[in-house]
Amino acid sequence: MADYDLAIIGGGLNGVSLARDAAGRGLRVILLEQGDLGGAASSATPRLIHGDLSVLERRGFWRVRRALAERRIWLAIAPHLVRPMRFVIPAHSDERPPWLLRAGLFLYDRLSSPSGLPPSATIDITHHPVGNALKRPFGTAFEYSDCVVDDSRLVVLTALDAAERGAVIRTGARCLRADRAEIWRLAVVDRGHRRAITTRALANATGGWTSMVAETVLRQPQPTVAAMQMSQIIVPKLFDSDNVYVFQNSDGRLIFASPFEREFTLIGTVTHDFTGDPAIVAMPGADISYLCEAASRYFRERVAPTDVVRAVSGVNLTPASARRGDGTTHFHARRRKAPLITMFGGDLTTSRRRAERAVTRLTPFYPMSPPWTAGAPLPGGDFAWDRFDHEVDLARDRWRFLGESETQRLVAAYGSRLSSVLGEAKTRDELGPAFGPELTSAEVRYLMTYEWARFPEDILWRRSKLGLTMRATDRDALAAFMAGVNDPSRHG
Ligand SMILES: Cc1cc2nc3c(=O)[nH]c(=O)nc-3n(C[C@H](O)[C@H](O)[C@H](O)COP(=O)(O)OP(=O)(O)OC[C@H]3O[C@@H](n4cnc5c(N)ncnc54)[C@H](O)[C@@H]3O)c2cc1C
Predict the structure, then answer these.
(1) Number of domains in the chain
(2) Domain with 464 in it: what CATH number?
(3) Is 230 a pocket residue for ligand 1 (Cβ < 6 Å)?
(4) Closest residue CA from atom 41 of ligand 1
(5) Is residue 129 part of a domain?
(6) DSSP string, 222-254
């Protein structure tokens, strides 16, 4: 008998979504990630949970409708990570005419599943706070509802849910070779140790590595794909209002500018073809200039490449014949050949559903329970999305030493599980030595014990974004602290 029913290679959003779905349906699951969870494309997305207006323009009505139904599900199961926002499109005389935008948003509202989010509206931005940051000529804007999400925490909490339902999650575990017969035999280097693993089915969810893994690790036919790089920039905060701007660029692309970690603005996305090793992906200077210029057309404050505090890039594959952002799942099984799932591309919004459909393809091979992920909250997400502020108030009542914005960060990260991080602490000192004004050793220990954090970057750039503001001395102290804690992961 094989050790597992399903082994998944790749701990991005596609891999962890497969793990969560399959573990909750009773399969014995192991996930192998060579680096950190969400360490590649899944933490370099535009962070949107949306129906995607640009798809509507291409008449993808059903696709938009399905994505909006998923948006409603994400709000229900991850109310801490997913935040509803008003998206504002200033009307620009050279771009799409106002009547077209109005008609598009009317349709967008109609395609939305009931979720309690307000419908679209026309606003006069000469007398509205959202106009303050924009150049003068913009008089009218359209606003509509969509959501933003913390992409890398979505990956980690999906993995945590999978682990709590029995999946084994191994980070720092690279699959070197997989031999296919009636079962799969895998050779893995797991934190320096060679391991052999057998499994009845295998999933290749290695994002930008998918073709390479198919060819060199699995030695199976490669999918016909195009590699694409997507990039964004982070700059100091350009506006105070709590909304996302959607700008129409002169080349017809939509550019997003959204609030990012209180002090910053995230601007994206630019995508283009990619060749090379997905592990070495840097944002070209031309792409940085492109986004700066696109933002500068709209914002009063000019955005220059020297303002960029961080550029974020990721690589993934799209089917060679498909449009940007489309995802693909291949399923392959034959007599005497154990099943193989290949899942790549796609977006955050539809990842849950795609994983559900992929795991369902295994139904003829194993007895398993029906789909379940749409109705079960992610860890810490067992409250209604419109009670987020109430959760913050409760936390401030309980841990009186916390400041307002700090509590918002903690509730957004841990939701109702914040007590697992802070325990019964009555003062900040009880949480141990701190690294900068917010990160305490209690939080670091929690992340190392329950969320697979091993190195400072895992905490500073993926479990949080505190790397944006942390001083070098605090970073060094954090590295020394983490090196002194034995790997306490209870999930291995
Ligand atoms: C052009 C483009 C535009 C996109 N735009 C959007 C967008 O607008 N909105 C949106 O939400 N999403 C967007 N996406 C999708 C998004 O970036 C990802 O597709 C999604 O996050 C899922 O990523 P993944 O899990 O497939 O890959 P990744 O997150 O890259 O994960 C793959 C993982 O596999 C691991 N791995 C590789 N080889 C091995 C091995 N041998 N052993 C163990 N582990 C291994 C890697 O370390 C990596 O962590 C876009 C994608 C593309 C291509």
Answers:
(1) 3
(2) 1.10.8.870
(3) yes
(4) 175
(5) yes
(6) PP-EEEEEEEEEEEE----SSEEEEEE-TTS-E
